[in-house]
Specification:
Elements (H helix, E strand, L loop, with lengths): L3 H12 L6 E5 L1 H6 L1 H13 L5 E4 L2 H10 L6 E2 L2 E2 L3 H24 L4 E5 L3 E4 L10 E5 L2 H8 L3 E5 L1 E4 L4 E3 L2 H12 L3 E5 L15 E3 H9 L6 H16 L5 E5 L4 H6 L6 E4 L4 E4 L4 H15 L2 E2 L10 E5 L4 E8 L2 E9 L8 H11 L4 E6 L5 H7 L2 E4 L3 E6 L4 H13 L4 E2 L3
Parallel strand pairs: 1-2, 1-11, 2-8, 5-8, 6-9, 11-13, 12-14, 19-20
Antiparallel strand pairs: 3-4, 6-7, 9-10, 13-14, 15-17, 16-23, 17-18, 18-19, 20-22, 21-22
This protein binds arginine.
Arginine binds next to strand 13, helix 10 and strand 14.
Length: about 425
Amino acid sequence: MSSEKEIRKYLDRFSSDDYRFAVIKVGGAVIQSDLENLVSSLTFLNEVGLRPIIVHGGGPKLSEELHKRKIEFSFVNGQRVTTKEVLEVAFEIFSGENKKIVSALKDKEVHAMPIIGDIFDCDIENSELGLVGDIKNTDSSKIKDIISSGGIPVIAPMGYTKDNQLVNINGDKATLALAKEIIPDKVIFLSDVGGVFDGNDNLISNINIKDDYENLMSQDWLHSGMKLKLQQIKLLLDSLPSNSSVSITKPLHLNRELFTDAGFGTLVKAGHQIDKLTSLNKKQEETVTSILESSFKGTLNNDYFKNGLKEFYLSSCNRASIVTTKHKNITYMDKFAVINSARGEGLGNAMWNRMLSEHNKIFWRSRSRNAINNFYKDVCDGFQKYDEWSIFWIGIDDLDQLTACIDFAVKQPATISYEN
Ligand code: ARG
């Protein structure tokens, strides 16, 4: 997989709260065709002590069964119109799909517990849809009991109205309602597709709602089902704390998605607000200092903020910063720092792109053994390697100018000191 350190970082993060690790939505198609990978990924989580909350669908199987029994059905805005007859079959199918997951997990000694119908209190808001429930209240006590006894709750998307009428609930809506109630670190959608793909069929690794949403929604290569899902994810992220995230992946890749920085799937975050500042107040100085010291693992010189005219990019989550100065009207990037716990979210990329969009000519240096140099080599127009430093640049094509910049960069005094 990846380095042990990376895995440990995520394990620590996900273990920090018993109930709030993750709500995982298992798409209906996964139960039909990928149950084995699902069970082995979940078994791994269980073995390392993480207890996700599982919600599953069953739509494809239900349609299949209705066809078989020659029961007519239809959809309105992606929601299944549920007659009494459809509801009876739905109950049968959801119970059956639920049992498939629960028994497969039990076979692997995972203490999985079924929940069907009794945690969602619903109203019927749109009678055109028949017996379809809109969730008014989610009772999480049963879920918490199961988790505190070391179990994994497996929830079917069904509920009851006040009059004790069983109702069908859209699986994604049940997932969102649960997420709002639990406020998990992660919400994960497991599908057989395993992510959002662009027009060339490449997996989109990161989506920041703030920067990417409008653009994505206007693309004709993004099919309507995925647009609907993104719309719902956006609503969900609006109501969760800003460090929560949604991952879309497939069962086989779940643990790589969870335990590595790069992941394997699509990670959706609310996005990053990045401020540009030309001077800092005391509090902001402290924030930037702590970002720099934590990501470079050294001590910042105490006259750092006094020397020279600097510009600062600072993420509103206070976890990343870029500091620039000018040398003869060309931008010198003096620091680029993302704290360790924020890596893998696309925050560094968002900072970089913001800075890049505001400067045409940039140069910077980096210690030769810094792991970020591979990224720098990708994005720069050229670089010059010395023993201690590598100097990179973008947009500087005048040779004299370039020589002067390289000379300037090499001669910069160190502003971070390291013990021994
Ligand atoms: N492991 C981290 C998480 O689950 C980062 C995942 C990054 N994934 C991605 N598709 N970019 O939050």
